[in-house]
Write a structure and sequence with these properties.
By secondary structure, this protein is an alpha/beta fold. It has 2 domains: about 130 residues, Leucine Dehydrogenase, chain A, domain 1 (Rossmann fold); about 130 residues, NAD(P)-binding Rossmann-like Domain (Rossmann fold, 3-Layer(aba) Sandwich). About 40% of the residues lie in helices and about 20% in strands. It is built from 9 helices and 12 strands. The strands form 2 sheets. Strands 2-1-3-5-6-4 form a 6-stranded mixed beta sheet, with helices on both faces. Strands 9-8-7-10-11-12 form a 6-stranded parallel beta sheet, with helices on both faces. α5 links the parallel β7 and β8. α4 packs across α8 and α8 crosses α9. The longest helix is centred in the last third of the chain and has 17 residues. About 45% of the residues are buried.
Amino acid sequence: MKLCIIIGSPVAHSLSPAMHNAAYEALNIATEYHYTAKQIQPRSLEDFIKSARLKYHSLAVTMPHKESVIKFLDSVDSEAEAVGAVNTVINYRGKLTGYNTDGRGAMDALKQYTPLKGKHVAVLGTGGTARAIIYGLKKANAEVVLYGRNMEKTNLLALRFGCRIGNWTDRFQVAESEIIINTTPPAGKNMLPLIPNDIVSAGHIIFDVNYIASGSIQQDDWKAKGVIVIDGLELLLKQGLLQFELMTGHKAPEEVMRKSIIKGIRKMREI
């Protein structure tokens, strides 16, 4: 049995195990592969990776480990190296190689709605997912403005990828961009909304990578105004298709995986 696992903190809410296990069943390889999840705190990451060499065939990596995991791997592919973040690790007989499917997955989701060349894009956030998305956008020749709470990290990221920088306190200026991408975690109840309804209008494309926000009242309000909304389900799916193929060598069954994600979201809302 080839064991696959997603690690992060928190990770209990992840829909990836259900998505991948449904795909194994559909392709009749569930006796060969099994996918699970485990919460790993940052202080435990190094020890976990050491043990993973002996136990796991592949790993999916989510917040907050996408950047920090790199130093514990034997190698990373050229895209993950350029991004500076890893979301997939394959164990080749004890040697761990890192990959990144977030950037290509996000571009696949966006390109369903618009060409990216020359588009003005605002990206909120500076974590591993933001890195991958910015890399993909720049490769597609889009113009990127980066907004981050931590100015030091924002400056370093902008320098790395050749982005312009927006001031976080003036982030409502994202409305000047044609595409707005939110990569930050869901805001607390007492925080101002990252993207208020009154600053967006028909013609905007808003991509929120947090699939927990899928189908929210705010997204419905945006759609009513003519905004094109891409929710985090699309990123989870598109990067997951690429990840599945890296992990198994099989073509991913897209509709099976999509239905599994939708079912998982519905269950989360019932809790």
